[in-house]
Amino acid sequence: MAGFSTDGILLKRIDYGDHDLIVTFFTVSMGRISVMAKNAKKSVKRFAGALEPFSAMNLECTWPKRKNTLPILNNVELSNPFSKIRTNTAKTGYACYWLELVNAWMEEGKAQAGLYELLYYVLAALDTGTMEKEILSLLFQIRFMNLSGFTPDLTCCGSCSTPLDEIRQQRITFDFAEGQLVCGRCGKKAMRRHAITVSKGTLKQLFWINNSDLQRAERLRFSPCTVREGEALLEAFIPCHIGREVKSLTFLRRIREVA
Ligand SMILES: [Zn+2]
Q: What average pLDDT does the segment 252-257 reach?
């Protein structure tokens, strides 16, 4: 029977009846796909306990015999369980947020190799602790927007095109509804209800992590203020752009409050 094999990261799993699971992966060759894991709920041994969120694995599936049914997951080979994420509440909070964005925004069945590489990179760095989780999250979000084609222009006023360096104010308004920066002059023209202000320095650093080599990102140093501003901007803009509530953000914010 015809089938396929690909590497994937487990995004989510839901119960299906008493014995089975429907598992959603973000895969290298097919993008986001959901498959049926028969007896996975009944017997943990069936997939050797590999079907956990964030885990990276190679999966082997069979195409279904009937239309409108899911491929059947036959076998998995775990390549990285990212187990240090799962045992740390704060790390889990960040990883859940990234996975929810990928699951919410990516089209079913459309390969996005660059995004797969990015997700794998941030999960691996989060797991090993080579980079701060807050900075990884800024890196993931800004590059996620870039790869999805909706990065706002952070280099000039979206209304009159004045470059950032020529704008007199040190703090610049970002309008969420329009998805753009607005200089002081243009900002006076309208009352902006759904907007925040961000310092020039933060905007420049976000621009930089969007455009620099991924490997060089490990050497980045951000001030606590930049991290806070970057988080506030990106965590408000992305859900606003994709047009849905991102539930894991509530969990992430609660973790930050107690930290
Ligand atoms: Zn302007």
A: 94
Q: Does the pLDDT at position 218 exceed 80?
A: no
Q: What is the pLDDT of residue 74?
A: 96
Q: Do 83-259 and 1-81 fall under one CATH topology?
A: no
* Cα 116 from chain centroid (whole Å): 10
What separation in Å is there between the alpha carbon of 179 and the centre of ligand 1?
14
Average pLDDT over residues 44-55: 89
Distance (Å) from CA 226 to ligand 1 centroid: 23
CA of 120 to the centre of ligand 1 (A): 38
Q: What's the 164 CA to ligand 1 centre distance in angstroms?
A: 10
Q: Model confidence at 202, in pLDDT bands (50, 70, 90)?
A: very high
8 A C-beta contact, residue 59 and residue 27: yes
> Any idea which fold 83-259 has?
de novo design (two linked rop proteins) (1.20.1440)
Ligand 1 midpoint to CA 130 (Å): 39
Is the CATH number 2.60.40.1120 carried by domain 1-81? no
For residues 179 and 241, give the distance between their C-alpha atoms in angstroms, rounded to a whole number: 8
Tokens of 78: 């775990």
C-alpha span between 137 and 142 (Å, rounded): 9
Cα 246 to averaged position of ligand 1 atoms, centre (Å): 31
| Ligand 1 centroid, distance to 142 Cα (angstroms) | 23
The Å distance, Cα 37 to ligand 1 centre, comes to: 54
d(CA 184, CA 169): 7
Reported as a single tens digit per residue, the pLDDT across 94-122 is 999 999 999 999 999 999 999 999 999 99
Distance 193 CA to ligand 1 centre (A): 17
